[in-house]
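Late entry, written up from scratch paper. The run itself happened at the end of the previous shift, but nothing got recorded in the book at the time, so transcribing now.
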Amino acid sequence: MNRRSFINISTIVASSAMFMGFSPYASKKTIFENQNHDDEFSSTMDNIIPITLEERKKRIQKAQQLMQQESIDCLLLDSGTSMRYFTGISWGSSERPMIAIIPSKGDVRYICPNFEENRLKQQITIGHQIFTWEEDESPYKQAVLAINDAGVSSGNIAIEERMRFFIFNGIKKEAPELNFVSGDPITIPCRLIKSEAEIALMQKATDITLKAIAIGFENLKEGSSPSDFSKAVAAAHQKLGGRHQFALCNFAEASAFPHGSSQPQILKKGDIVLVDCGCTVEGYQSDISRTIVFGTKPTPRQIEIWNLEKRAQAAGFKAAQLGAPLKNVDAAARKILTDAGFGPDYKLPGLPHRTGHGIGMDGHEWGNAVKGNDLILAPGMCFSIEPNISIVGEFGVRLEDCVYMTTNGPKWFSQPSPSIDRPFA
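Output as recorded:
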């Protein structure tokens, strides 16, 4: 682990040159100015296979089977991730409700403003019935009408967790005879277990973000600000074919704050640089963190903490075994840090948050690696392993890579950093 201790930006880029597909020494131009690499960028999105209509239909079938098992008559979806997951429809949230209704039997129904009907029809591939409302009419009455049209006049109506309260409350007032329950028993089992097609899209997003981080590191220089790195990663994500989501970057003492600092930061040699980046491909997320030392030899203290973080991440991965509860991942990683004198629990200096979070179409989903989570690991689950070490007043180290569970155990989406001077495997 400590065979090499010297690091500078050229070293970082050189270590990633094989997967980057370019030589960091060929030119002083940035990669975006080098037209010879256009083919590399254009090929990044080759072989992308979007989620098929057939798979979405199977998702709805699974949801309907779960509804029948749970004695639920309808599932109501607000615009957002779950609507896209089941129907393929992407619709922005506004004060005008657009709702999808999945009954336990039969076709999906939609409620939308009348003037939006033709736009909605362009996206609909599952179901066909649309109940519209004019600007001076109640969308909630139309929602109840659609529920009744599905053969439901009483019973349990499931509300997906991200449905906005004013929509739920409006429907509830229009139909006091209906019993409203949580949609979690339907949406969580469906979205928690990813298909091969979903994992392939997450893998592509991960590959893009790894390249984007390398480009962001290449653009760092003395005097840089965190936003300089963030802009380079955002441009790389776009150029590589991903949809940019975030690129956080913090230097020196600010790296001890897991989500960054509002204080101005100027990069200097010897600073810890902690980055956290992600993009989407066809709606599926990546999430990767790397920690390096900029421009000079790491100190013994930086090496010590970085190596401890790596051991904690490896322990979390080892604990991610089929049939074991997710809490074991957190316990294993946290024990490494506690045994080294950090914590205990969430106390600082140490690991102030869970070891990992679920990931899929949302950057944070169900399936958290956290104390008390008895959810049993099964094939298709996807989550991060990121046992951050925060030492306020000094620096922080985080190594974050996501895994997906296979029938043979966990597999990394991105290979962890080999050492403090080699951010990429």
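The chain has two domains: 9-43+194-412, 53-192.
(Scratch paper discarded after transcription.)
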